[in-house]
Amino acid sequence: MPSIHPSLAGGLLALSMLFTPLFALATDLVYPVGQVSDNDPGLVLKRVRQSADSTQLFLEYNERESSARIGTYPPGHPDSFRLIDPASGREYALRAVKGIATAPDFDETEDGDSLEFSLEFEPVAVRRFDLREGMQKGEEDEVMWHISGIRLQP
What is the DSSP letter of 142? Predict the structure, then answer.
């Protein structure tokens, strides 16, 4: 049976790590983020959980006006949230929404109210991506919520 010289073993391990998808390294990786929305200071991405099956984003919305009706679009709607890899342009589909109303329904909020919700996407194999809702390519004026340049750091 062939053997690997001990001096090469470490290099082979490092090489194999380079070609292993990020989400395959562990069953559940949680990244603290704390990033505020680009267009609404009331929306904060608190953390991201990656697994082999999905990528989950946990967000918090804090009402800063006297009152508002908030909600989002359900999976499969053309304006629903999606994750975008800025390097490749690949979009990752929304699978589930929890904790916030989906169209045509809305949640009523008053000044000072806080609402925590989560978004589940197909697995994302990158550590940098953007979150967009309601914007089709080239329609900047149709953006609902977005957070650009999300970086997952251990």
Answer: G
